[in-house]
Design brief:
Blueprint (H helix, E strand, L loop, with lengths): L1 H21 L2 H10 E6 L6 E2 L5 E13 L9 H8 L3 H12 L13 E7 L1 H10 L6 E11 L5 H4 L2 E3 L2 H6 L8 E3 L2 H5 L1 H4 L4 E7 L5 E4 L15 E3 L3 H10 L5 E7 L4 E8 L11 H10 L9 H4 L9 H10 L14 E4 L2 E4 L9 H7 L2 H12 L7 H14 L21 H8 L23 H12 L3 E3 L4 E4 L10 E3 L7 H13 L17 E7 L7 E8 L6 E7 L9 H14 L7 H9 L8
Parallel strand pairs: 2-10
Antiparallel strand pairs: 1-8, 2-3, 3-4, 3-5, 6-7, 8-9, 10-16, 11-12, 11-20, 13-14, 15-17, 18-19, 19-20
Helix pairs in contact: 10-20, 13-15, 14-19
Length: about 600
């Protein structure tokens, strides 16, 4: 009996020692009972375009918080009526909060999110009656507002922070907001600012009686940084206007800097659709749309580049001394070897290099491509192919360009191992892969990569990593992006640029005459990209003016046929809009034709 009493007493002594000396459990309960620590959320940074025009700003919003220890005898029906939620929804949320009680850091004395992002009107009504709802507090927050309903895929959106991020990053707590896509995600740490805190003191009845120690332990929040983007919002809006009722993308780049002037992914959505509680309703609709408006086709769309890719091949063949500018090849409506035939359209023959660009001759590039791969100086077809691939990759194909966005696809450039697996090692020939010479076969690229190719040609041998961030407006941050050389001598670009100029401006005809402008020399290259799932894609890339280029551009319209029919006129209108500010009256008919056209799968 005595031993039992001793054991019980020792148990109590050990437990008291643990609770009073070792454990912090009751200290935290006492702290939570005496204080209410409120988070002061910073104002998120604003976003401007390249001309200083405000694009994204903040609007007031409010979260309704509940302290479970204080929430007693609530008139839930009245509260639900003010918040425009059902009693069932309220009960569900309370159950979710109670289920958190086993989570580390949870306390009945700390505010928990009850309803997020109530409107200004709901806030006003609740504020008037807040005294009736013990344990209910209002947490000021902000929502994103938009000057224009454009550039949704560029700007991105914010939403509640995912649970995984909360577990991995001490900055975020459940119920915080974070950038989910676009610029909002890419530059989250710059935009979010730093949270502050306010410590309030409770009396013995749990009521707030003021700031603890007159606020000396409070910390002010720090506003997020304002960002200036490289995009020209008026050009972006114009591109979206031209691409309405079409699927595809437009990417425009300033060649001398790599700054992205516009990135139109079509179809898109209104940025305001992803704000606040409306997002939960709109996201499933957008996500299930068969035309995929949430897909950023500029950075993630993978397409055969078609005949725009002939320019890369031409530069590679020149640099490798496979051809010279005066080299001619014949064409009889295509390239014929035995039973193999790769077709071409009708044009004069033979053609030199610049003329092959002007008229987009398929046979020319089949001959030159095979001449390189079968050249004995490389030792084997596969070795020659690797040399070819390395030149192509230097222009930004096959790997991510490094654009400052959270989602960018690399496109695809195969290596020799791919064909070793397909045909057997040393068993494949140049004829097996000759379609690569005209930008078909296994090669794919994003519209951004095709626009970057135009920029590299405009610069005669180099390109800067394309990017969206121009400056951090309220910080001394220096923004720099890498310069990439393509390992092709500058003089080799001359016949390519001449051919691109002739394609648009030659009096004897070219594949892109529709892109000609009266007072600006446009250099361009059409492409018609084969599409295994339907009608060919219309592709065009260009830069202008020819001397001291200010814009390089790529346009791709899905299921639209020839590059000259839709992509080329869209690019020419974008160039004219950017360089001249308006569309000439004599070209208004072209703008009307493009903007009114409906090119969607269910209309073909």
């Amino acid at each position: 009996m005595l031993s039992i009493i001793v054991v019980v007493m020792l148990t109590f002594i050990i437990r008291l020692f643990y609770l009073q000396i070792i454990s912090d459990e009751y200290k935290y309960y006492a702290k939570d009972n005496a204080f209410l620590e409120k988070t002061i959320y910073p104002s998120r940074g604003l976003i401007y375009d390249r001309h200083g025009e405000l694009l994204v700003y903040n609007e007031p919003s409010y979260d309704v918080m509940i302290v479970m220890q204080e929430a007693k005898n609530l008139d839930t029906l009245s509260l639900c009526k003010i918040l425009h939620i059902t009693k069932a929804k309220f009960d569900e949320r309370i159950r979710e909060i109670k289920n958190k009680r086993l989570n580390p850091g949870y306390s009945r004395y700390t505010p928990q999110l009850l309803v997020s992002q109530i409107s200004v009107e709901e806030y006003g009504e609740l504020q008037e009656k807040l005294f009736k709802f013990q344990g209910i507090y209002i947490q000021p927050r902000t929502l994103r507002g938009y000057t224009y309903q454009n550039a949704a895929n560029i700007l991105g959106y914010i939403n509640e922070v995912p649970k995984k991020v909360v577990e991995e990053n001490d900055y975020y707590k459940a119920g915080d907001y974070i950038g989910i896509s676009g610029i909002e995600k890419q530059y989250e740490e710059l935009l979010r600012g730093e949270k502050g805190r306010e410590i309030l003191l409770r009396n013995s009845h749990g009521r707030i009686v003021g700031n603890y120690s007159d606020g000396i332990y409070d910390i002010a929040s720090e506003k997020g940084h304002d960002l200036q983007l490289t995009i020209d919002m008026q050009l972006q809006r114009y591109g979206e206007f031209l691409m309405q009722n079409k699927i595809g993308g437009i990417v425009a780049i300033e060649p001398s800097t790599g700054e992205i002037l516009a990135a139109v992914s079509s179809p898109s959505y209104l940025p305001s659709m992803m704000v606040g509680r409306k997002r939960s309703e709109n996201y499933p609709v957008l996500n299930n749309d068969p035309n995929r408006p949430l897909l950023d086709r500029c950075l993630k769309g993978r397409y055969a580049p078609g005949s725009t890719f002939k320019t890369v091949n031409a530069l590679t063949f020149l640099q490798e001394d496979i051809i010279r500018s005066q080299t001619c090849f014949g064409c009889r409506m295509g390239y014929q070897v035995g039973h193999f035939h790769l077709g071409c359209h009708n044009h004069r023959s033979p053609l030199n290099l610049s003329e092959s660009i002007q008229h987009s001759c398929n046979a020319y590039y089949c001959y030159a491509f095979r001449n390189m791969l079968d050249n004995p100086k490389y030792g084997s077809v596969s070795a020659a192919f690797e040399v070819w691939k390395n030149h192509v990759v230097a222009f930004g194909f096959g790997y991510r360009l490094g654009i400052d966005m959270p989602s960018e696809d690399r496109g695809y450039i195969p290596n020799s191992l791919v064909y070793d697996k397909l045909y057997g090692k040393n068993r494949w020939k140049s004829l097996n892969i000759v379609s690569l010479s005209i930008g078909q076969g296994e090669v794919t690229a994003t519209p951004a990569q095709i626009a970057n190719l135009a920029a590299a040609i405009a610069n005669k041998g180099y390109w800067y990593t394309p990017h969206f961030l121009k400056s951090v407006m309220d910080a001394d941050t220096i923004i720099t992006f890498e310069k990439h050389n393509v390992n092709v001598d500058a003089h080799n670009f001359e016949p390519i640029i001449k051919g691109m100029e002739m394609a648009v401006n030659a009096t004897d005809g070219g594949t892109a005459r529709v892109a000609r402008l009266d007072s600006i020399v446009v250099c361009g290259k059409t492409g018609t990209a084969q599409n295994p799932h339907g009608k060919d894609h219309s592709v065009f890339m260009a830069f202008a003016p020819k001397d001291n280029p200010r814009i390089a551009i790529a346009v791709l319209v899905e299921n639209a046929g020839f590059g000259a029919t839709w992509a080329a006129p869209i690019a020419s209108l974008m160039i004219e809009k950017y360089l001249k500010g308006n569309i000439a009256p004599q070209r208004q008919w072209l703008e009307d034709r493009i903007s009114n056209a409906v090119i969607l799968p269910n209309t073909q």
